[in-house]
Amino acid sequence: MDFDGSQKGAGWRWPLILSVIFLNICLPALVLSYGVLWVHSLSNFEAPLWLGFLTPSILMVTYNLTQCWFREAADSWGGSVGYRVLASIGLLFVIGGLILCAFIPYYLQAVVYGVLCGLGSSLISAQVDAVIFETYDSHIIIVRGSGFLGQAVGLSIFPHILTALIDTYGYGHAYVVLAGIMLQSLVAIMFLHIDENVRRPATFSRYKDLSQAYIVYKNEAMDHFYGTELQLHHKNNKSWKNPSDDNVRFDVELNDDDGFILETITPPPSPEEKRRNIFGIDILPQIPEESEESDTEEIVPVTDNNKKRLSVAIKRLSTLGDSIDGCITHQVRKDSQPKGETNDSNASTEFFEVKYDTITPMTDIQTEKLLNTFSFRCQSAYRSVKRKLWIPSYRMYRIKRRLTYLLYSINDTFIKPLTRSLSCAKFYPALLLSFSRLSLLTICLVLLPMLASEVQPKISILEMNFLMTLHGFTWICFLLCTPWLAQTPKRNYKYVTIFGLLVSTASAFVLAADNNHDSYSIGCVIAGFGYGAVTSCWEGTVQDYVGARKWPKVHSALETLSATLLAVFVAGISFVVEKENGLKLVMFILGITLAVITILWVVIGAVSIYLTKVKSLRLHKKSLFRKEQVDL
């Protein structure tokens, strides 16, 4: 099926888009709205500040460290059912983690909530990204923008939902009800499948170099290759007058737009025609098999395939059976020959007559005595030890093979991309940009509810939830620019990202210095704009900055190293949280870190403007001046 036609027939697939939006509303809220749960846990159990501060960081570190593994699992185990099965398993991880948090002590909730919910969210996110990539091509930015819209909506409504659950059912049972809410995502997971009729060909895969060599053996998408291999045709939809006719036949099909279309149909090649595969090796024509019964037997026609081949096979089997019977019946044993007769096949005339009277049969008692002898036991023990030492069992072979496969997977997933990325100078600014996004997600958003408790006069929980909703609403306001971003070249994404970093840095300093209700509200508003800009454009910025070819190699290393850097950063500033005004000090440290990253990317943006605009304009003016001089 042609790809263009399949894209037109596929359309937007609204059920899939709605399922992606719903999954992004529910699952990212586990880390976006964790600050609300943290506030209630402090009021109920008087838990330490550093414990709640580490929980979203553990979730994001687990999420980023497992994304590369689950992305490979999505590509390997996908299909019509695989995406939904893996996403359902991820949902079970999330629900299991939330239910366990209701029955374990509060000091263990950080690890269980972070690890299990991070694993489940990572597994579901990998399936969603794989389905989106395989389904959409030109609309992929709009669909991913719709996913970010769902995250903003989840940030707006889930603080109110969590507060109502805790007030109604209590802190412990609120986790169980929240798990029931997450269970409703199973309906959206059932829409995560790819329509095989409109699926993109393998040439559009993210692993294009590997897939081109593989699909040749599956005889897929042969129209996208250029070689000496003869193209295959579907014989059910085509017909010809004579297979040996070399002329080309045309079929007329009606069309609503042009009236008719002339479709060229190529007759099948003759057996004498030479063909070559993609490697340049000649493909020989098939030679019909002859029967072994007689040389005068008629050759089986090609047209009568099933009946004739079956009859020839039966005849060959019967002939072979007669031959075996003849060999058995005409066989002569040496010990049964009469005296005076000799065997022509052997010149020896000495025979040893064997009769059952001269042979004592081996009984079970004698066999048991033989097996119980000391020498036999020693030999069997020696052979058993030798077999275990030198000939390991198949189970040990399987264990070694799986261990080798795991080591190669770790090398291909972590070590090799890491060594390649660290040798690239452009990787380090991209790493800092990814770290800034994670720090805004796990530090700034989590500290917002706690900062509301230190404002004078103190802000109530209901008003705090409203300000969190205001943060999500400003994020939605920025996402209205998604259609414009879809038409914007990726080389201009860096300017939007720099704008987001500037606004986020300003919001961090405003929240660090807030002493009243107004400054806190302004900080929430501008933080929503900055976080929306950084989240929407950071990936396109990094992809354009490091290059489209290096992006698949850099992507996994970028995720793992940014998660490791976040873990180290959060572990370092967790000692500051317990001090007096520790929350504002943490926001101030975050503002300084974002300021350094912003200055670096401002320099990168200025160099890009100079190379693309100013320098090219000067060269254009010089060329015009030289042209004028030549004309004069």
UniProtKB/TrEMBL annotation:
The keyword Cytoplasm does not apply. The chain crosses the membrane at residues 12-37, 49-70, 82-105, 111-133, 145-166, 172-192, 430-452, 464-486, 493-513, 519-538, 558-577, 583-612. The keyword Membrane applies. Gene3D superfamilies: MFS general substrate transporter like domains (1.20.1250.20). It comes from the Eukaryota. InterPro entries: MFS_trans_sf (IPR036259), Proton-linked_MCT (IPR050327). Keywords: Membrane, Transmembrane, Transmembrane helix. This is Monocarboxylate transporter. It comes from Leptosia nina.
